[in-house]
Amino acid sequence: TNSDQSISLVYTQRLDSVGLNVLDTFSAKPFERTAKLNSLVLDEVKDSIKVTLGQLLKSSPLGFLIRHGSRTSTPELSGMSFQPTTLNLKQYFETLTLRNGQMAISIYNGYPVSMKNVNLRLTNVENKEVVVDTTFLLIPSKSTALGNIGLAGKTIEGVLEANVKLDLAAGNNVLIDTNDFVRAIMTVRKLDVQEATAIFPAQSVIKDTIDIELENMGSRELDFVVLEKGQVRIVANSTLEDVVYFTYSLPGVYAPGSTTSFSVNNKIGPAPANGSVPGVWEYDFSGYTLDLRGQKRNSHNKLFSDLEGRIQYTGKKVNLSLQDSFYVKIFTTGIKPKYAKGYLGDTIVTISDTVAVAAFDKIPAGNINFEQAKISIDLENELGVGGKVNVNNITAFNPTYNPSKVELIDNNLIGKDLVITGATDNPLKSSHTNIGTSNAAPIINISPKSISYRAEVKVGEPVKSYDNFMYNEKFVKSTLNIEIPLAFRTNGFQLSDTVDLSPTFSSDLKNGTFTVAARNGFPLAADLSLIFLGENGLPKDSLTTTERLESANIDPMTKRVMKDAANQYIKKTSRISYKFDQSRLANIHSSKKIIFKVKFYTQADGSTAKIYDDYTIDFKLIGDFKYGM
Known about the structure:
Layout lengths: L5 E13 L12 E6 L4 E2 L2 E8 H5 L13 E4 L2 E5 L3 E4 L4 E17 L5 E10 L5 E10 L3 E8 L4 E3 L1 E10 L2 E5 L5 E19 L3 E11 L7 E18 L5 E11 L6 E8 L8 E8 L4 E3 L10 E10 L5 E5 L3 E19 L3 E10 L17 E8 L5 E11 L7 E3 L9 E4 L10 E7 L3 H4 L5 E10 L9 E3 L4 E14 L4 E7 L8 E12 L4 E9 L5 E5 L28 E9 L1 H8 L3 E9 L8 E3 L4 E11 L2
Parallel strand pairs: 1-40
Antiparallel strand pairs: 1-33, 2-24, 3-15, 4-15, 5-14, 6-13, 7-13, 8-11, 8-12, 8-15, 9-10, 9-13, 15-23, 16-22, 17-20, 17-21, 17-24, 18-19, 18-21, 18-22, 24-32, 25-31, 26-30, 26-33, 27-28, 27-29, 27-31, 34-39, 35-38, 35-41, 36-37, 36-39
């Protein structure tokens, strides 16, 4: 109702909806990683050489002069050497090429005199390459010399030949014990292997951590996405000649209702020599939440990915190389996000259309002249981001009238940026904005057959916010309202509907009651009368009551009748009874039609209401009769 207690009829027409393509542009392209082995580690390998004084003296021409158990002065003996010794390390490895490593050498001199210029040379038996060639200038009697030799870039075979050359210093009154010995201990340690055929201990061979950045995001910076559905396929390929136990984790990806992030454990291999072995795994990501803030939780559009591969100790020799790789490719199929949160960027969308107007089909142009009429646009924003709307023009058309078109002129509406607020979440609650003008009579008076419009909708706020959100299939919805005053007052506004009636009653009926179950979708209370018409269409009888139909409740946000979760109007149910006796029953029995006549009244609280063209009221007639004997 208006301030003068008259009623306005509002004709509504759904216009275009505006959405964002944030969810559509979520990258569903596969990404791939090829991870080379970061390192290969071997346990340290140790071997030794032991040469007694007696064995050494046999290689010297003067050795016969020195007798076991004697005490004597000895001359300096130069150019002496141990017999070549074979070091067999094949129980540990066949060959190994080192990226880095060390050989720790410990030489104990148990001879009664000092050793000088002690040269140790280790040579691969097959390729004859020298692995170690080092010299200790002086090793006093009964002492130990230590040294570390770098092995970076060296290739070591499983069988080595060890050669030792040295000089014996002169001795004065020394006790000769030919069982005295020199022991050289060689320990290959801290091995960082480039390639090896060896028995490897359990170790991590691949560690790849990366923030995967989404593509084609433009100005959008997303923090969270929830998937409605989608499949993730992991395709792997390994060239390692050992079983790789791998863990692939997406620490920012969570299954529905879970606080544990996505992580899978699988194994692949071993690969054949100079070949590879594939593996395929599939996972359903329906309902999964993706945290796109990256590893440090301070970025946007980034998915934290972690890959770790391990080998286990088997006691068997296998060939591994840092050139070996573990390849992973992630395919996403059927991805359909349903929710996104973060900065959604800004988008300007132009909407324009010409819509047919049926409200004036039976009103010839010029037969009615409204002094006041309103045109407005209701904007329902289901997006969690605000924006602006600018209506460029609204034009009415009627080809049978002169002028055939009239353009709306209103500086408060046309060409002006009008603010739209964003929806709120948990639960989702749309914001409602109404923009309009009361100066629409000139375009309504031509009884328009169609109305065209053009508007620019800018979705996005001037201040960047990461609290923006949106759901799939949610939009900024717009509705065109044409509001015209009716000629009736609220105490005279009536609606009626006529339906066929074919009653069949027993002659034993004495009296009874008709009960009408009414569902009122109007925001006005009402009286209901039942009028029974005879075959000639004239009234035969009527039933009235003092009971009143209750009005439907108005939503304070939309100013319309409240709606349920299915977006249907919530109608108010009332039951009204009409009593009749036997004499009136005869009139009803001969009736052919019944009119449901509704008379609406102002709401008791005096609040205003508008009648929209999609409001309805439903009736169900129920009879309760008493029989006589």
